[in-house]
Each structure stands twice: as structure tokens, then as C-alpha cells.
């Protein structure tokens, strides 16, 4: 299923939407679920360059640094960027509460 998803997102990325954050995000998630953590990290970093407030990419990078690199400081920096965002967010209040809980447990 994830390989099919990656194929769909690759097709979209090869078309008119190569720099669309949501297409890139889908590719990053597919890479992550297929175990290609370094490729997914690269995609999420590219998203942040296009949209520095993309909560999904920030969250995935926070998870990467927490679980792959065991770097709590870097993970917390990404979580802080989400929690301190004053823009309309794709993440709802309960998701931000979970992030804060996760952040507190990590300290």
C-alpha cells in the first residue's frame, strides 16, 4: 500500500505539482512508512524551506530527531515551532495538547 502511495505521489511530483507541500508531505510519509528515514527527512526539510510553518513536516522532523537521532533538544525545537505558531494550523487543539504532553515526557 505504501509503495502504491509513493508511486502516486511520485507521479504528482513529476507533474505540475513538484513543489506542492502536500504532495511532498505525502511522499515523505510514504518514504517514512517504507523505512526510508533519510529520504523522508530530506523531503520534510524541503517542505520547511517552502513553508517554514508546515506543522506536519515540523512534527515528522521532531519525531525523526527524537526517535532516530535521540536528540531531544532538536526534537523539542521543532515541537516548539508548532506549539508557538500563531497561524491557522492544520493541527487541532487536541493534537497540540498531545505534542505538549510528548514534549514534557521527553524532558
Question: Could you explain the architecture of this structure?
Answer:
Helix content is 75%, strand content 0%. The chain contains six helices and no strands. It has helices at residues 2-14, 21-33, 37-50, 55-68, 72-83, 93-106. α1 packs antiparallel against α2 and α4 (55-68) runs antiparallel to α5. The radius of gyration is 14 Å and the shape is globular. The relative contact order is 0.10. The model has no long low-confidence stretch (mean pLDDT 83).
How large, in whole angstroms, is the Cα Rg?
Answer: 14 Å
How many strand elements? 0
Largest beta-sheet characterization: none
- Low-confidence runs: none
* Coarse morphology: globular
Q: How confident overall, as mean pLDDT?
A: 83
Instruction: Give the SSE string.
Output: HHHHHH
Assign the structural class, choosing from mainly alpha, mainly beta, alpha/beta, alpha+beta, or little secondary structure: mainly alpha
Helical fraction: over 70%
Our count of helices gives 6
Distance between the termini: 36 Å
Question: How would you summarize the topology of this molecule?
Answer:
Blueprint: H1 2-14, H2 21-33, H3 37-50, H4 55-68, H5 72-83, H6 93-106
Helix pairs in contact: 1-2, 2-3, 3-4, 4-5, 5-6
